[in-house]
Amino acid sequence: MKRIRKFIIIALSFTMLFITSCSFSDNENKTISKDTFMLDTLINVTIYGSDDEALIDKAFEKVNDLENILSVYKENSELYNIKLDAGIKGTKVSDETMNIIEKSLDFYHKTNKAYDITLGPLIELWDKCRETETLPDEETIKEFLHLVNSDKIKIDKKNNIVTLEEGMFLDLGASAKGYIADVLKTYLKENGVKNAIINLGGNINIIGSKLDSTDFNIGIRDPNSDAGSYLGVLSVSDTSIVTSGDYERYFEKDGKRYHHIIDPSTGYPVENDLRSVTIVSENSLNADILSTSVFLLGLEEGMEFIENMNAVEAIFVTKDKNVYVTKGLKDKFKLTNEEYIYND
Ligand code: AMP
Ligand code: MG
To answer: What confidence tens digit (pLDDT) does each residue in 266-310 have?
Structure first.
């Protein structure tokens, strides 16, 4: 039996690089991989040991359907309707949307109000500023800050109704990709997929291991370099890996970086010692919410937060090029860029 050795490097996302090297026999040597642009980012699904392309097409359809429910920027989405009804009446939502909102509220409390999905108006403001590379005026920030407060989200669980005050709207940008990655994982597994990688703009969800039963190698992005450069490699199977970083969506003005993770206590991008946080957790929704939450908390508080959680690990990269890795990743993470200092 002829053995083939493959080395594939796929730099699909702004966040992560995925590297794998597989050996397998000809009859197992079926890999299908497709890219598309959705969720405002590049997405890819790669299935090993299958040539059923329709599965990936169906998965992409699911992404599209879920984006049409969860994105506040899609007309007639549930989030769009909540915004439209704010100050007028409550909005009926699906169980899925209700679950994500409830989970978000849980993290709002756990992060001492740093993780706040009512940041919608300020997130939209900063998105526009990024396009024009101009700073918002302070008055507008102050005005919009009055609309930010998750305590004001009213939830009628029995009837699945969400009510907001006038002018408020919700943004699930920090969690939707994670939720969708979980849905795709379930869908592919239900359809017999045993080895696959779902990559939603760097939000990675892995099914199983490589075909030779070894771990996949995931490159962790070097925040100081281009997409495609990594500072270390994480070897893992059957888990989700999600990174939040200040290099994902940002602009620079007068030497200062304005990125996309907003501190609800100031209305400005959060400022602390971190460049990026990578979360490793089986559940991708958790990993996504956690990556943003921990980025908001900063190194010390964020590290404590993660160490107090079960079955969740993290990699922190600081502005002074230190890399901190939680205990559970000691044997799984390898720093490859010598400019960085390893700490465990
Ligand atoms: P991520 O890349 O997963 O960290 O998510 C970043 C996205 O989360 C942003 O683009 C916003 O849509 C949203 N976001 C920004 N700041 C916050 C915050 N403090 N709490 C919750 N969501 C936020
Ligand atoms: Mg996130």
So the answer is: 999 999 999 999 999 999 999 999 999 999 999 999 999 999 999
Which residue among 119, 203, 247 has the greatest number of ligand 1 atoms within 8 angstroms of its CB, and so is best to mutate? 119
Distance (Å, whole) CA 225 – CA 315 = 17
Ligand that comes closest to the CA of residue 284: 2
The pTM of this model reads 0.92
**Using a 6 Å cutoff on CB, does residue 173 contact ligand 1?**
yes
Q: Tens digit of pLDDT for each residue in 66-101?
A: 999 999 999 999 999 999 999 999 999 999 999 999
**CA geometry: angle 103, 238, 19, nearest 5 deg:** 115
For residue 115 and ligand 1, the question of a CB distance below 6 A is answered with yes
